[in-house]
């Protein structure tokens, strides 16, 4: 189990689902359903769905989920508990997931992020992701809609 920034990052289990759902509901305006998150925590054929969780002194502090298609990965969600944000745990989760993708032979990692999400964009940009497209007006906001930035990096 790799340890980064004092946080232990490990593969998620079905028993982590409640904590993942609770955290997602704290940081997202559109939290994922149990069924959608469960796919990432259950053993998946050909590693099609993967999830990692981050703990500090056994306290659940974050998670990252990604899906795989052929030799590409897509980061589908990452969340760090508000209490633990800004302490390097998002980076620890991302680096562990990228290591895992490399270890299973994936070649590219992609993701989508709200244009206004400064923290997430910094996390990705500081770890090798570049913007290679825009989905105009993709996300709902309280005021209307905003663009999704499409980002990727080689593994
Ligand atoms: C995005 C998120 C996962 C980042 O996790 P985190 O643990 O706070 O991030 P870290 O402390 O690991 O910081 C990672 C990098 O981003 C930068 N960063 C983090 N928050 C930032 C902010 N608010 N403004 C600018 N930069 C920021 C850090 O400086 C750090 O850069 P470094 O690696 O060069 O030091 C977290 O803010 C979160 O859960 N947000 C809500 C959910 C969300 O938006 N998920 C992303 C969906 S695409």
UniProtKB/TrEMBL annotation:
User: Subcellular location, in the record's words?
Assistant: Cytoplasm
Entry keywords, A to Z: Acyltransferase, Cytoplasm, Transferase
For the keyword Lipid biosynthesis, the answer is: no
Reactions catalysed:
N-terminal L-alanyl-[ribosomal protein bS18] + acetyl-CoA = N-terminal N(alpha)-acetyl-L-alanyl-[ribosomal protein bS18] + CoA + H(+)
Tell me the ranges covered by the N-acetyltransferase domain, including all copies: 7-155
Q: What InterPro entries does the annotation carry?
A: AcTrfase_RimI/Ard1, Acyl_CoA_acyltransferase, GNAT_dom, YpeA/RimI_acetyltransf
TM ranges are none
List its EC numbers. Answer: 2.3.1.266
Q: PANTHER family per the record?
A: ACETYLTRANSFERASE, ACETYLTRANSFERASE YPEA
Please describe what this protein does.
Answer: Acetylates the N-terminal alanine of ribosomal protein bS18.
Similarity annotation: Belongs to the acetyltransferase family. RimI subfamily.
Official protein name in the record: [Ribosomal protein bS18]-alanine N-acetyltransferase
Q: Which gene encodes it?
A: rimI
């Amino acid at each position: 189990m790799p340890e980064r920034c004092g946080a232990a990052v490990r593969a998620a289990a079905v028993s982590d689902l409640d904590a993942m759902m609770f955290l997602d509901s704290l940081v997202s305006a559109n939290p994922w359903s149990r069924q959608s998150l469960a796919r990432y925590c259950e053993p998946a054929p050909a590693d099609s769905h993967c999830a990692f969780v981050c703990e500090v002194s056994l306290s659940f502090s974050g998670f990252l989920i990604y899906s795989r298609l052929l030799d590409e990965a897509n980061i589908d969600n990452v969340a760090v508990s508000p209490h633990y944000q800004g302490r390097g745990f998002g980076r620890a989760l991302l680096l562990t997931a990228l290591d895992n993708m490399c270890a299973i032979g994936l070649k590219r990692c992609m993701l989508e992020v709200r244009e206004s999400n400064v923290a997430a964009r910094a996390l990705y940009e500081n770890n090798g992701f570049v913007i290679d497209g825009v989905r105009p007006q993709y996300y709902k906001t309280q005021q209307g809609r905003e663009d999704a930035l499409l980002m990727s990096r080689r593994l």
